[in-house]
Amino acid sequence: SRSLPDATMKAGEVMGRQYGLRDAYELSVLSLVASFIAILMGAISSVQTRSATALGYCLENGVDFFGSVLVLWRFSGTVAKDVLDSREQRADAGISLMFIVLGVVVCVDGVKDLLFRDKDRDLIELIALYTPSVVVFVLLGCAKIHVGRHIKSTSLQKDGMCSLAGALLSAGVLVSAVVEEFTPIWWVDSLVAVVVGNGLATKGILSLASFSRRQINIWSCAFWRGIDASPNDPHDSILEDDPLLTDARTF
Q1: Which is more confident, 157 or 86?
Q2: Whose CA is closest to 31, among 214, 183, 155, 122?
Q3: Global pTM?
Q4: Parallel/antiparallel/unpaired status of strands 17-18 and 13-14
Q5: Phi and psi at residue 18, to the nearest 5°
Q6: 53-70 pLDDT tens trace
Q7: Which of 36, 102, 157, 214 lies 20 to 30 Å from 163, alpha-carbon distance?
Q8: Which of 27-36, 194-203, 240-249 bottoms out in mean pLDDT, i.e. has the lowest?
Q9: What are φ and ψ of residue 228, in 5° steps?
Q10: Dihedrals φ, ψ of 14, to 5°?
Q11: Is the confidence at residue 103, as pLDDT, over 80?
Q12: 3-state secondary structure the chain
């Protein structure tokens, strides 16, 4: 049988670096920790500053946290290939649904702040809190998308998009803080929240539409229970040459 390095090599290799499911798993664990810290930070900042982007950032990282849980579940255990395929589809659909919910919530809150002209406060605190978030979530998001592409996991790639959305919301808070400090412009973070929210919702809707085009009924209980194997899906297995199928260890 093939060794883990041999199987992992087929999962993806770029610039001399081999990528496999362990990379995806470790990225998801790191994302869970970072997202949990960001949720606490965003909740505190949202209460103290009444920032639309801070609230959206908190909610987005809640989705990112749950998305990382889904990805961890998708990569856990040594199970049959069709089971892992089903997990990938359900994780993908779950994150897509969360994109829509999150996008609507962030947009509504951003529009509310634009209408009622809410302004940020404690600008120095905002800068201190959100500068590390931009760096951390840009790195996490890019890493997830990069690894996800090479192991053919759309759920990991979407989890990466969620991390990048968190970074963008953090950047919105920082830009808003600086602009408000030196100009009368107060609406930057609210505008960022509306743009990011629309982007997330649109991505979620398009992703769900792709399931419909592939004749996969994500609205059935059988799909979420893993009973529906989606025989009409014309795509090749996203888990081809999956290292978990040839390695005895579990994550």
Answers
A1: 157
A2: 155
A3: 0.74
A4: antiparallel
A5: -90, 135
A6: 667 677 777 877 888 888
A7: 214
A8: 240-249
A9: -75, 110
A10: -140, 130
A11: yes
A12: CCCHHHHHHHHCEECCEECCHHHHHHHHHHHHHHHHHHHHHHHHHHHHHCCHHHHHHHHHHHHHHHHHHHHHHHHCCCCCHHHHHHHHHHHHHHHHHHHHHHHHHHHHHHHHHHHHCCCCCCHHHHHHHHHHHHHHHHHHHHHHHHHHHHCCCHHHHHHHHHHHHHHHHHHHHHHHHHHHHHCCCCCHHHHHHHHHHHHHHHHHHHHHHHHHHCCCCCCCHHHHHCCCCCCCCCCCCCCCCCHHHCCCCCC
Q: Which two tokens stand for residue 220?
A: 């059935």
Range 5-18 average pLDDT: 45
Q: Which residue has the tokens 């579990």?
A: 250
pLDDT at 56: 67
Question: Which pair of tokens denotes residue 50?
Answer: 């009444």
